[in-house]
Design brief:
This protein has helices at 8-12, 16-29, 36-49, 60-70, 88-95, 114-123, 142-152, 204-213, 235-244, 248-268, 303-312, 342-350, 362-378, and strands at residues 53-57, 78-81, 99-102, 127-131, 157-159, 167-168, 171-172, 179-183, 197-201, 296-299, 351-354. It is an alpha/beta fold and 386 residues long. The chain has two domains: 8-246, Type I PLP-dependent aspartate aminotransferase-like (Major domain) (Aspartate Aminotransferase, domain 2, 3-Layer(aba) Sandwich), CATH 3.40.640.10; 248-378, Aspartate Aminotransferase, domain 1 (Alpha-Beta Complex), CATH 3.90.1150.10. The strands form four sheets. Strands 1-9-8-5 form a four-stranded mixed beta sheet. A three-stranded parallel beta sheet has the order 3-2-4, with helices on both faces. Helix 5 links the parallel strand 2 (78-81) and strand 3 (99-102). The radius of gyration is 21 Å and the shape is globular. The two termini are 31 Å apart.
Length: 386
């Protein structure tokens, strides 16, 4: 049996006719950049999340970049975030000349640790933003983070690139704090047919500035009040996303069902004593979509050998992320070293993403679990520990 990490063809098939018709309508209109489809998507995302404003842009990375630009973050400013995330979270800060300050992660959720954030705030001057990442589709501890931020007078900017459709008791991921952003990269829970992203924010003036900056700071045409960039969203991507968005909650429920099946199967096979399984910190709070499983992440003893074993059995997997950001070559100038963020380093060495998507079958999941069981039968290890 072959089990891919993700099979987007299965999602596309039932929507194919509708998506192709929407793309053809955009082609016939020849309104190819921004325009009615983008405006429709912006209104839909704002309504879906409860955000005051939503601004469509060219990618999740550009969404973060243009937001930081709109806030005037640059040289001399500090931004606190996690070292265990996709590169863009820190890369956008570096591109603007601001100083990246890392805070270690919580070992259970993989999101930024509140005590580590508190320590970083206490010893860092000129902090202009805190960026929690809702990693793998689960919200960070936003109540504690926003309380800390309020004490220090610092805005919270949510990296919700992996978390559209996820919610916290305080609200929807990306719309809980002052501003946030999403990625619509094809592998995300809501994926476009290429790169696309969205910024959300509460303040109307900030939203207007972001709209201006995504189009070179141009308003009116060929008059530039500031230096922005080309962060415009293509109409075809917006059209595809407009078709997909109404299905997002159903897909999220499907992912949660697959996660629940994994838990049950791992328990049945006695593997929950070997593996570290994902935690659900907001379960039982009355929030149905408290985790949307953009990835199903396990902690696995002998992780690299397990991944090779699964690959030979036809099972896809991925490592998110093999090297934490503070140890990346391009950030050597920050002065961090091995051992500075032990939880992030431990997660990088132990975690593995297993296939999880709505169309995954129980037979495929059982095959994954059986093969993991077979691996540890051949290479016994002790009980799992976070």
């Amino acid at each position: 049996m072959r089990v891919p990490l993700l099979d987007l063809k299965l999602q596309y098939a039932p929507l194919k006719a509708e998506i192709l018709a929407a793309i053809e309508a955009v082609a016939d209109s020849q309104t190819l950049v921004l325009g009615p489809q983008v405006e429709k998507l912006e209104a839909a995302v704002a309504a879906y999340t409860g955000a005051g404003h939503a601004i469509g842009v060219s990618s999740g990375t550009d969404a973060q970049l243009v937001l930081l630009m709109a806030l005037g973050i640059g040289p001399g400013d500090a931004v606190i975030t996690t070292p265990y995330t996709f590169f863009a979270t820190a890369g956008c800060v570096e591109r603007l000349g601001a100083r990246i300050v890392f805070a270690d992660i919580d070992p259970l959720t993989y999101n930024i640790s509140v005590p580590a954030l508190e320590e970083a705030l206490a010893k860092t001057s000129r902090v202009k933003a805190i960026i929690p990442v809702h990693l793998f589709g689960c919200c960070a501890d936003m109540q504690a983070i926003t309380d800390l931020a309020a004490q220090h007078g610092v805005p919270v900017l949510e990296d919700a690139a992996q978390a559209l459709g996820c919610a916290h008791p305080l609200g929807a991921a990306g719309a809980i704090s002052e501003a946030g952003w999403y990625s619509f990269y094809p592998t995300k829970n809501l994926g476009a047919f290429g790169d696309a992203g969205m910024v959300t924010c509460r303040d109307a003036k900030l939203a207007d500035r972001i709209r201006s900056l995504r189009n070179h700071g141009m308003e009116p045409r060929y008059y530039h009040h500031s230096v922005g960039g080309n962060f415009r969203l293509d109409a075809i991507q917006a059209a595809v996303l407009n078709i997909k968005l109404p299905h997002l909650d159903t897909w999220g429920a499907g992912r949660r069902a697959k996660a629940a099946y994994y838990r049950s199967a791992f328990h049945k096979h006695g593997l929950d004593c070997v593996l570290g399984l994902p935690t659900e910190p907001w379960a039982g709070t009355g929030v149905e979509n408290h985790h949307i499983y953009n990835q199903f992440i396990i902690r696995a003893p002998k992780r690299d050998a397990l991944r090779q074993f699964l690959s030979e059995a036809g099972i896809g997997s991925e490592i998110y992320y093999p090297l934490p950001l503070h140890l990346q070559e391009c950030f050597q100038s920050l002065g961090y070293k091995t051992g500075d963020f032990p939880q992030a380093e431990k997660a990088a060495a132990e975690t593995l993403a297993l296939p999880v998507f709505p169309e995954l079958t129980e037979a495929q999941q059982e095959y994954v679990v059986e093969k993991i069981g077979a691996f540890y039968a051949l290479q016994p290890v002790g009980a799992a520990a976070h």
